[in-house]
Write a structure and sequence with these properties.
The complex is a heterodimer of chains A (about 180) and B (about 270). By secondary structure, chain A is mostly helical. In chain A, about 70% of the residues lie in helices and about 0% in strands. Chain A is globular, with a radius of gyration of 18 Å. By secondary structure, chain B is an alpha+beta fold. The chains are: A mainly alpha (about 180), B alpha+beta (about 270).
């Protein structure tokens, strides 16, 4: 599919877009919550098409694409700013993985998630990006390095630094 | 560390990573729907795009190919028994692709703009970008192309309307040539024949190909890795297709078969 798209086949590229649109929009949203994620992803897909001849066939496509998405989202974040109420949000009533929790447990889980999310949203952009890449998008360290354009050796240290600040935020949020 | 009190509302330190993964599973994500169609429509509409730097390797054997092509051309157009599939080109019939009506290009637009032919660039840039020798017709009446486009590895050379040019099904095009690296493949010609379209198997100057006239059709090729490249961007009318050294050329013009072959033979 990727080879066909690289050869200029628009239909193949359309299929590639379809396969990656969810993760692309999600990435754009996590990096620039206040911007229109779908619009950013669409722009990134068009730019990726133009850049496709530079894509090395055989290399992993997803991180290559997400890097373009991340760049587009960062550009938009600068103009969109970080307005109140437009941070990353959790879905309202998605049940926990645990089967049929009691209402009390469900409430506790929701409260804990809300506190964690609030703490994530208070992180600096680069800390939030690495948390989003590793835990929300579940990218590998190598993929995270590609997408965020940081050296591979930096991923681990930046991740542990972000986790440390997140713990600080959580502690402050509780006090 | 966040201390004992944080245990009630936030996970203990060791569980923070698990808690983040759990959070990731319930994050609200904007719904992505129909991006494929919208992205394709934008690509086909040829919104102005920045010039990309292409990084494909330049062929080392360019001069060799050039020398081969420069060998005296022997016209040997042969009408062959119809019914044999020529390896290399597949021709598909089907409903026209659901193209958005091309916005009528402004009068000043380059020939072929708005047809979804690809990224406009100079001939020199295209030469750097493709991994094959670009073939150009060398007839007195035909100068260098007025516009060059590249979409992936598919090159399009476009000439505007001109009394010296044959003209095409598109009023703003005097001649259109498509070139791409596509390899040998069997079949598909039967469909063309079954539909009643006139197809001739032709050979000339060591190249083999098809002359197709009449019905507009969608073309498909086979990439070097065996995958299929369907050219859904554009249906063509009369056209001459030929494959040489792994590169398929398509000449689209309102020409007779012999005139088209004569033009193809002039390729250098």
């Amino acid at each position: 599919m990727i080879e066909r798209a690289c050869a200029g086949e628009v239909m193949a590229y359309e299929e590639l877009v379809r396969r990656h649109q969810d993760v692309a929009v999600r990435t754009a949203h996590l990096i620039a919550p206040a911007a229109d994620a779908e619009d950013a992803a669409q722009e990134a897909f068009v730019k990726a098409w133009i850049a496709l001849p530079r894509f090395r066939v055989g290399a992993p496509f997803r991180p290559w694409l997400l890097r373009i998405v991340a760049n587009e989202a960062r550009n938009r974040r600068r103009s969109a700013g970080r307005r109140e109420g437009l941070a990353i949000r959790a879905t309202a009533d998605r049940p926990s993985d645990d089967a049929a929790p009691s209402p009390e447990t469900a409430a506790l889980v929701a409260e804990r998630r809300a506190a964690l999310l609030e703490a994530v949203n208070r992180l600096r952009d680069d800390d939030r990006e690495i948390i989003a890449a590793r835990y929300f998008l579940e990218l590998t360290e190598a993929e995270s390095a590609d997408v965020l354009q940081i050296p591979r050796g930096t991923v681990k240290s930046r991740q542990s630094r972000a986790l440390g600040r997140l713990r600080d935020n959580l502690a402050r949020g509780d006090s | 560390m966040s201390g004992e009190r944080s245990m009630s509302t936030s996970p203990p330190g060791l569980d923070l990573e698990a808690a983040l993964r759990d959070l990731g599973s319930v994050l609200a994500a904007p719904v992505a729907s129909g991006l494929g169609e919208r992205v394709r429509a934008r690509i086909e509409a040829e919104a102005p795009r920045p010039t990309a730097r292409w990084a494909w390797p330049r062929p080392l054997r360019r001069s060799v190919v050039l020398a081969l092509v420069a060998v005296i051309v022997i016209a040997a157009a042969v009408t062959a028994a119809i019914g044999y599939g020529l390896p290399g080109i597949r021709i598909l019939f089907g409903p026209p692709p659901s193209l958005p009506a091309s916005p009528s290009a402004p009068a000043s637009a380059a020939p072929g703009a708005g047809l979804g032919l690809g990224l406009p660039m100079s001939l020199e840039e295209a030469d750097d970008a493709v991994d094959f020798e670009i073939g150009l017709p060398e007839l007195e009446a035909i100068g260098p192309p007025d516009a060059v486009y590249l979409a992936g590895g598919r090159l399009a050379l476009a000439w505007g309307p001109d009394p010296g040019l044959p003209g095409t099904a598109s009023p703003d095009l005097g001649l259109l040539i498509i070139e791409l690296r596509a390899t040998v493949d069997e079949g598909m010609i039967e469909k063309l024949l079954l539909s009643g379209t006139h197809v001739e198997w032709i050979t000339f100057d060591g190249a083999r190909g098809y002359w197709i006239d009449g019905e507009r059709h969608v073309l498909a090729y086979t990439a070097p890795d065996g995958s299929r490249i369907e050219d859904t961007l554009r249906q063509v009318g009369n056209s001459l297709l030929w494959t040489r050294d792994g590169v398929t050329y398509r000449l689209e013009a309102e020409l007779s078969r012999d005139a088209a072959i004569e033009l193809a033979e002039s390729f250098r």
